[in-house]
Request: fold
Amino acid sequence: MTSVDRPRQEEPEKMSETEANVRTERKRGSGAKVVYDLLRDEILDLALPPGSPIDEVQLAERFQMSRTPIREALVRLAGEGLITTLPNRSTMVSNIDFLNMHTFFDALVLMYRVTTRLAAQYHRPEDLEVIAARQQEFAAAVRAQDALAMIATNAALHLAIAEAGRNPYFTVLFSRLLDEGRRILRLYYQSYDDRLPQRFVEEHDEIIAVIAARDVDSADRIAREHAEQIVRQIQKMFVREDRLEVPL
Amino acid sequence: MTSVDRPRQEEPEKMSETEANVRTERKRGSGAKVVYDLLRDEILDLALPPGSPIDEVQLAERFQMSRTPIREALVRLAGEGLITTLPNRSTMVSNIDFLNMHTFFDALVLMYRVTTRLAAQYHRPEDLEVIAARQQEFAAAVRAQDALAMIATNAALHLAIAEAGRNPYFTVLFSRLLDEGRRILRLYYQSYDDRLPQRFVEEHDEIIAVIAARDVDSADRIAREHAEQIVRQIQKMFVREDRLEVPL
DNA sequence: GCAAATATTCTTGTCGACAATCTGAATACA
DNA sequence: TGTATTCAGATTGTCGACAAGAATATTTGC
Reply:
């Protein structure tokens, strides 16, 4: 099938999967995924703050593709509640629900407990390697006092623990909660230059130890304390900056 | 910001949202939703059993619309894990994961407990009316020995309880779990004509009583026993029909 | 007769265009 | 002047068509 009258400059393709690269040429079926991943990151990093308008044609131009794959990405994001679509009108980044924050905390603490408990129960040797690596990255972020890296690596560590627990239902919910937490924390770390304390590194070490020891009850207890510690930390930020300028 | 009190001519529109109706005329923006709702029901009812091929053009003909809204519905269903898409190849109804069924049971029991506990804590008077109505419907299904109606009304009852708990994170997960349970149970009720015992009606009454009494600890305990009772019931079916013909 | 190469077919992925609906401004009217 | 109406602009929802990729059928070469 040598139907190559077209000068499709495949060539080296040295470039990594950057946006610029994707623009010029991209594999069939990858369009929506690229847009989804990038948009998701931008939303969670608050590069697109809550309330930001999402324009399909604008995105289509930016990614050099038609609106169809763009729309598919948006439908998926809407399914996760990250964007909100007003029928026939407009689409925008979903707001953070400050009024029902306590429901978020409840769910977060419970998932911290459950996933850690299951990890202690069902983990395999290779899981511990992944978890240890994530903890290294978190500790490095703490040493560097890089608040945003702390948020990301902390989420990655706890997600690794959750996956060692091997319950996809819990993992999916936990992942959503950690994402939402990423937005909330970033909102504060933008204005404040606060940092999660060294204490969290030590608590993580404790958690990893009881998981490795398969001590289920201790895992539950320590995870709970750790989670409640984090929640208190976040709540402290709230009262501290009570009259925060929040986009409704 | 005032809500939308716009006189949007809702008109009579006596006709119910049947498929035939939708075929002839449908409102802009409703296409994907209609397809989504109907396909979802058919999947959960096993009218479309696991492994069934999902053909876009076929659906487009059936619903008398183009493939675009069909695809949107499919993307949403895929997001919930109800269908599986093989890139560039085909789409089919997702399988039921019998190997990791225990993770499903773990999650189900925990959500039964948590949602009931929160309902005892946070319910409002009007919630109890809804819950009582659902319990009536469940009792009616038991009296009629209508197994499929029992499944549906049981799920509706527990979802009503979950909503009285007012934690959207838990409610969403629980809803997914009840959906998955609907598929699993229906798989068995197709071959067997077993029925959930009268005992469940009484247990529901107990649960409703402790919720109304705001007895959080009892709510947790009774919900747990109730859930484990149900899980045992399902597991009994499994061993009974061990060499079941399961579509992989 | 059988394996490899080729053609066909079938399904999904993408595209550009058009239509419907909403927003907001400009206009008409009391 | 204030309110209702109309019109223009913008954005989404839908459509039909085409292309790419994978599976299957067919042909070719030995």
